[in-house]
Amino acid sequence: MKNLLSMEHLTNEEINHILDRAQAFENGEASSLSRTYNVANLFFEPSTRTKTSFEMAERKVGCTVIPFDAGFSSMTKGETMYDTVKTLEMIGMDAVVIRAKEDEFYNELLEGINVAIINAGDGAGQHPSQSLLDLYTIKKEFGSFEGLNVTIAGDVSHSRVAKSNATALQRLGANVRFLCPEDWAGEFEAHHSWDGLIDTSDVIMLLRVQHERHKVNKSFSKESYHEEFGLTIEREKQMKETAIIMHPAPVNRDVEIASELVECERSRIFDQVRNGVFARMAIVETILKERD
Questions:
Q1: Could you tell me which residue ranges the Aspartate/ornithine carbamoyltransferase Asp/Orn-binding domain spans (predicted)?
Q2: Is 249 annotated as belonging to a binding site?
Q3: Which domain covers residue 150, as residue numbers?
Q4: 99 annotated among ligand-binding-site residues
Q5: Has 130 been labeled as part of a binding site?
Q6: Are 258 and 141 members of one domain?
Q7: 280 appears as a binding residue in the annotation
Q8: Whole-prediction pTM value?
């Protein structure tokens, strides 16, 4: 595990190692890195949670975080991703964390680049660190994944979170179901109503409506989406007593989920943010150790 590019590239053993290390970090264990590493975070899309979470995680495992402002980088002058990353390698980076608009941006970095590449989200492709923190959140709650019913609801076709989590959860033994409007299913076979899902789900994972990734039909309305596909207060009352609510955030309140439910007793939305630091500490430590 010398890079983290896609959940499809991770074995179950590697996933469980990261989850175990995340738990160890939450329990107060110190990082086992043997030296100080230099890391840069290259974010070419807006981000609050992922970017600051990686920065916090990198510092907590003892890395030096080198500032990088995508808006003032040479890529605005036409420099390629490869040349930018190669330049950072020559300056002395050990790892780069990258979020980019292009699907599988990392393919051009697999030959000739000798720093660790961590994918912080590629277009509508994959978001492996989000998936790993989601898995950690679920495992803390239920102890395992075997036989859990996980419903992923929302803008499935454009969601790197849905793709990353579906890959990992199914391989770990969970039953994954999708819920979305008919034209948002993409490659997935999806349900188009909550019937049979709301009262059988152990985890309901809501996805943000991604207005920036597609032109929402003019007939789209937040109110009608919430009524048909959102987690309303009435639907929450039908959930299993032990079921939890998740969302990668940012949340469109009263669209994907009723505002009153964002911090309700069964919500783990802000717990996911906290868990993200521990999961990303585990990711950064694991990859840098493999590099030595």
A1: 146-285
A2: yes
A3: 130-268
A4: yes
A5: yes
A6: yes
A7: no
A8: 0.95
